[in-house]
Amino acid sequence: MPVRLSLPGLAAPCPRTSQDGTTERPFAMPVEFLGIAATGDGSETNVRTTPAFDRDYTLRLARAHEEYGWDRVLFAYGSGSPDPAPGAAYLAAKLDTLQILLAHRPNVSYPTFAAKTFATLDRISNGRLTVHFITGGNDHEQQREGDFLTKDQRYARTREYIEIVKKIWTSHEPFDHEGEYYRFNDFVADVFPVQKPRPDVSFGGSSPAAYAAGGAEADIYCLWGEPLAQTAEQIEKVREAALAAGRTDTPRIQVAFRPVIAPTEELAWEKAHRTVDAIKARKADGPARHRRPGNGRPGAWTPENAGSQRLIEIAEAGERYDRALWTPTAAATGGGGNSNALVGTPETVAQALLDYYDLGVEILSARGYDLLDDAIDFGRYVIPIVREEVAKRDAERVAAQAAEEAERERDRQQLIAVQA
Is residue 96 predicted with pLDDT exceeding 80? Predict the structure, then answer.
């Protein structure tokens, strides 16, 4: 059972609803929170009790995110999972303010078709869509849907795909395209996004090929949670890639974690160790179709993608980093995606997230192991602390900038007086 929080002295902010029925945010800061739009209640620790797509659970989870201060949710992609695009449309039609991050693999549809799908979803959601393009870091998973390109070829294809989609979103005249992976003539869409000039493009990866593609094309660059030093190194590589591509701006940075929170530090660490035990048990007992090659045979399987390799290397080097980062959750999953934890009280986890904000991270992605209850707890107890502290930091920064400008103006006036 999840540990429900009851912290003396910490008032849980209730979701506020305006007169028109939409959820109001208690703060409006330049930090955003991304949760998960799961269509069933299973996780690395919990056996799913719902169908793969359960309408009631999908809506209940998303509504909890909207009501408890999250900004957007991710509809993830898996080869055998429910199609995320109809799921996104379902939520967009049911909710008023929650934004949607839709994951999409270029190998599953032609870019002309995908661009129309995305534009239609942006219309349904009234401008709440961001698209996350997945190149694919595992050959076996890609081949399940007929994709036999090499990793480098996939990155080149993704970059061409994004360029085409962006052009379709913004071009009102027919155009031809002849590239390495796609060719078509005389195409123009009849449906365009609400957002102008277009929805944001999200991208992720930790290899040189990923930095190059995402640095050139992404509005948001996504990283898995790593220690502060390694995160700073990756951010710099993304910025270098953007500059090398000739951009005058750089992508916003998103970093993802698995928070494990409880009323006290002791309870949080007890919960963290129970979580790892549950991951290991679930992994051992899971259905064969969900097992990676080599499961059950130590050392028999090494992930192909650079991000997972980095997570394993970090876990092998140590369990605890910085203020609250804990790696055994990543080690237990074999570096399976977003898997490093932040462990502690809400205050500890909030301060750890603020450390990443201070590095330049603007979007904080978090997903617990009990998807619904953890989303509510995180929204009640962590998000308000982070937003309040970000507001203070930003106010201090503005005040400091104003003081510097005032001092420069005084110096200028003094120089004018001396010269006179």
Answer: yes
